[in-house]
Write a structure and sequence with these properties.
Distance between the termini: 43 Å
Strand order of the largest sheet: 1-2
Largest sheet: 2 strands, antiparallel
Oligomer: single chain
Radius of gyration: 24 Å
Shape: globular
Order of helices and strands: HEEHHHHHHHHHHHHH
Length: 290
């Protein structure tokens, strides 16, 4: 009996450090954020209970509504763009060759590079002058120079390009894992039947990748809703608020206007949307598997 009891405790002993870190750094701050969203936070003067008034202020904030629109547009473009390119790269780099392993490692580098560093590099590449790297290349084609991040009409699309570039390798790795589980005999049978490459992808590859696609879609959508670092480094929400997204607006409310209660309410709304998005994707996935 003692041995059985000791064995049942072993998993909890291994999990204890991770659980303690999660409680201290994630769940306690989360509950404090919920509390702060219901108060007017006044350091040294005492917090004042305002109930859901902070949430009302967030929803009535015109800049916040604009930021939601920018977030949705950036998220949709970044999510579907990175999934499409990730799927294409997964098809091209699938295999066991050493050269393919090196190529996959090189392609994956943006994921392990600090987002702030990536944003700063792209800010330099997007230099609006004729001597800027991208504008210099476009000059050979007789195009440009383009303003990229300096124009309200192109800034959000330029940020979206960076989001796609950063998210594509991550999605590629997950889809590569999904491709490894596809039955190769199906490809051979379809080739014998005269199916084209596009037909094999449509009728064999994509159905087999449905679980992996669900994971990729969920993670990419959540990642796009929480976009902050790349936007902050590239544009800071400008020019003229054209790239302000949900998280940059939260940052502005909390650390520039020093209104931590309203910023906490905006963060709690983001948490609620993220949970609903995750639950919705899982619901439709289970419904599709039936």
């Amino acid at each position: 009996m003692r041995r059985r009891g000791q064995r049942s405790l072993l998993p909890w002993l291994f999990l204890a450090p991770a659980l303690l870190l999660a409680v201290y750094f994630k769940f306690i701050p989360m509950f404090k954020g919920i509390r702060m969203s219901l108060y007017k936070v006044q350091p040294f003067l005492g917090d004042q209970w305002v109930g859901f008034d902070n949430y009302r202020k967030v929803l009535e904030d015109e800049r916040f509504r604009d930021a939601i629109g920018h977030t949705l547009l950036l998220g949709a473009g970044g999510t579907f763009g990175s999934i499409a390119l990730g799927f294409l790269l997964a098809l091209l780099l699938e295999g066991q060759g050493r050269t393919l392993w090196l190529l996959r490692s090189a392609v994956f580098l943006p994921v392990v590079t600090a987002t702030a560093v990536v944003g700063e590099i792209w800010r330099l590449l997007y230099s609006p002058t004729a001597d800027g790297f991208i504008n210099n290349l476009l000059g050979f084609l007789g195009v440009g120079p383009l303003p990229f991040l300096d124009s309200p009409g192109s800034a959000l699309w330029s940020v979206m390009g960076v989001s796609v570039w950063m998210g594509t390798p991550y999605n590629m790795v997950i889809l590569l894992a999904g491709l490894a589980g596809v039955d190769r005999s199906l490809y051979e049978a379809s080739a014998i039947d005269g199916a084209s490459t596009l037909q094999r992808i449509r009728h064999i590859t994509l159905p087999a990748l449905r679980p992996a696609m669900t994971i990729v879609l969920t993670l990419a959508a959540i990642r796009s809703l929480r976009s902050f670092t790349e936007v902050y480094v590239l544009t800071g929400g400008g020019p003229a608020g054209s790239t302000e997204v949900w998280m940059t607006r939260v940052f502005s409310l909390g650390f520039e206007r020093n209104d931590m209660g309203v910023a906490s309410a905006a963060s709690m709304l983001l948490l609620a949307v993220t949970l609903l998005l995750t639950l919705g994707v899982n619901y439709f996935r289970r419904k599709g598997d039936r």
